[in-house]
Batch of 3 targets.
Target 1
Amino acid sequence: MKRIAAALTLFTRLPLWKWTDIPAEAYSWAVVFWPLTGWLTGGITACIYLGLSSLLPTLPALLCAIVVQLLFTGALHEDGLADFCDGFGGGRDKEGILRIMKDSHIGTYGVIGLISYFLLLVSLLGALSPSMTALAIFAADPFSKFCASQLINLLPYARKEGAKNNISYRKMTVMSFIFNLLSGSLPLLPLCFYAPATSFAVVAPLLALLCLTVYMKRKIGGYTGDCCGATFLICELAMILGIVITVSL
């Protein structure tokens, strides 16, 4: 339970540290439980959208749901995407990329990356029916976090000095990987039951993970926390794109 509390504290704004003592060691396992936090963030976003969709047009309902999600997570992953775009867009070598990603200021690439991400996200989700959108949000969040969490198994940490938050994630054991996989995959069941063709949509985030892993390996020789956040959002976008395509066929 301490490790789950660590994951919720790290990846959401829930102040669990006020009510329970979370040892530093628990945070090193937080990525294992990252998909589990997606049950909460994805579930809340899906429920808010589904509730508002009966009262508001599609676009305002989606925007309200996304804003609530951003407040709940503290825009942690979006910050990672902006840093990722700035670093890999403006850095010429490993040192330059890592230096730019560590800078707290946002640059041109980061702004363009965030605008492009949100425009694609809203337009893709808006192309689905309200019930399908809610199921897609709930399924894509945990599964994409499962995909992104595999970076710690596939790549070493890129910074010699360690992470900015002083947390070093452990590579997963066989049992922790199985838990990670199950917690990321179970929310797919309602979506696949509702629209069986969408089961093929999982190929898209897995391909996105593969491409990003090869790209990071070549450019910086590993991953960072910002890379994890960016990978999650890109995989999520890829999966929603896959859902829209499979539904349209």
Note: The longest helix spans residues 225-248.
Target 2
Amino acid sequence: MPDIMRILFLMEDLCYGGTQRQMLELARRLDRARFAPIMLTLTGPTDLDETAREAGIEVHHLGRDRRLAPFFFARLGSALRTLRPHVLVPCTALPNIWGRLWGRALGLPVLGTVRGGGGPKRQHERLLWRLTGHMVCNSEALCEVLQGLGVPAGHLSYIPNGVDTARFCAPTEPVSLRPPRILCVARLAGDKDHVTLFRAFARVRERHPEAVLRLVGDGPEEARLRQWAAAHAAGQGIEFVPGRPDVRDEYAQARLFALSSVREGQPNVLLEAMSCGLPLCATAVGGIPRLVTPGENGFLAGAGDDAALAAHICRLLAEPELGDRLGRAGRERVERDFAFERMVAAHEELFVRLAGEARC
């Protein structure tokens, strides 16, 4: 076993997003006396490169800009030979496909990751799980899906996402004293189903015309969502804000947090919102029901059910003190169950185990 293990996180990019931020935090918090984190992306430099380097993480790219590098799948093998990781950790779909193939070809231990609700299908897990030494899911629901595809339970670990409770903390001002701002921090992509949130917001505006929906994020659906906002009266109350590394000020100014996803793992943004003392209105998909207990720290609606989502949002706007109570309960839950220390320790144990098995 080497004195310091090189752990390579293979990413599609380091754009601002939930998986990127979660893996960056994991890499940043690894015990540097035992582990040397490396990040390799299929694209060029993007949003979080500077943050990674400031944390002392070695960063490499196969491309030059935000687009996938030409023939990245062929160039990846050469990069892995040069970087010589002791454990390869591919994150998101393309890295989990090509990283596993090259990992097997080069004899590298691979810790597969399945983080999004659409991950099992996109990553062809029915076939490719066999190319991993072990796999990590960030929700118990994903573990169950993978077992249904034939992955043995002993080949899977559930490691929930972590949140920095010191960094994401509740301001002194209670949410009940804030303007009626509904916050959604999420990539503007199909899985997030923002249109359902927009339809819910249109219903909310009928009862609370002063309400504002603030979207923080970027993504391929932005043009379509802006078109929807321009074509509907409720769009006058929708604010589009680009994603950025630090959105704590957005949490501090919101009355509640809403998420209308149709597929999810365990969303970082819900943990951050809970840590900041916000009540939640979300859809009951993926690992979200493990985070949101109806009536305790928020409310759940079915995927695509804009009427139920609107009813929950309206209740929180109409009963400000309820939002205070739910927000406090969410903060207590995060402090108890989702501290980063537990997440990091679980990953470090797997890294050591996989590297040890590779030497046998």
Note: The mean pLDDT is 95.
Target 3
Amino acid sequence: MHVVVYLDVLFGVNLLMNGMVLACMKLFLREKTTWVRWFLASLAGAGLYCMVFFLPFRKNGAEYGVYFILTAAIMIKIAFCVKKWRKWAAYIGIQYGIASVLGGLMNGIYYGIHSQEPWQSAFFAGVGRGYQGFGTAGFFITAFFAGLIFYFGSKAIFYKRQKDDGRYQVFLRLEKQTGTMKALLDTGNSLVEPVSHAPVIVGDLAGLSELFDREEQEQIKAFYKTGSYKGERKIRLIPYHAVGVTSGILISYPIDEVVLCKEEEPIIRKKGIYLAVSPIGISGDGSYQLLLHPGILS
């Protein structure tokens, strides 16, 4: 039995599916990439997949599997510029997981339409029967709706996760002083530096001891008592309004670098942010020392 393979069709289908998988990875992982890198990664994956027909591999052999794992690794490297090998390996697993989910959704949509009974849909998908008589247009429509379901599902998961978990580990650098502390995303924080309109994050004095020596801490305390500041660092005064307070002034410092981390992995690196120092604690239980401005996440 001879099977005719049309490489142009095979290439086009793989280009589409690779693009869908990488787009879903970007959405699911909240990763950064450009449209050019996304397209080049999809193109590389489709080309490498078509090349396998010209290589002396045994079907279902070990080298066959290694080849496709390397193909996935190359696509991830191009799309997301991953450097750490552990993250790289995790992304390969996630890529295959998302591809499996999309394939399952496509099977469910196709066999759900063409089968009268639910058990028939599960059976046909399990035995891997192809999309017989569905045509190219039908395949693309099925892929589109599968991607749409994944998109809205990922959006719902992300917003729930964002709502439940707005805590970060934050690294701050102020001149030669550095410090790492815990922070909470405060969606109600609208403080900006009046001149540059740069976002302002708020920390309590006790929690910022790594950034300020004892002399600087005394200067900050003196400012809130007398309104006079005799320190040598550049400061900005940030006006604010709060519940129960008609108005007030916070002393703030231009931060040289702010790095937000999740599970010890840097996810956002910013400059041009101001750090306002509160004379009182901002967390009742001491579980965080900073309140983040929402603008720092953009």
Note: Residues 118-130 have pLDDT under 50 and may be disordered.
